[in-house]
Task: structure prediction
Amino acid sequence: MKLKVDRHRFIMDELNRELSVKVSALSEKMSVAEMTIRRDLQELENEGLLNRIHGGAKLKEERLYSEKSHKEKQTINVSNKLKIAKKCGDLINNEDIIFIGSGSTNELIYDFIKDKNLSIFTNSLDIFLQYK
Result:
């Protein structure tokens, strides 16, 4: 797992499951250097997604009813979102005309339909930019 976005998603998935993570455990699970994990944790802390603690990080306590940022939504429940995106891709046939609404789950559909000849309508800039 070498891409930064993949590491960030993995870290946030782990935090959402465990509430805290250790640098050493993340380094081992992702097969990257501990320094890489520390840099990733610093970036995620700078974005307000977590709090770094000695040897790791813990999930940031958020105010009740606060809306998560789009960046944070992209890092939460990624494995489940990928399953949904794959199922959507399986239901879409070549030559279909489809609408893909905005959302972090819908953004993942592209990987499962990119080889199909489709007409796509969307209200999401992030999705539009994937297909241009």
Observations:
- The two ends are 26 Å apart (CA to CA).
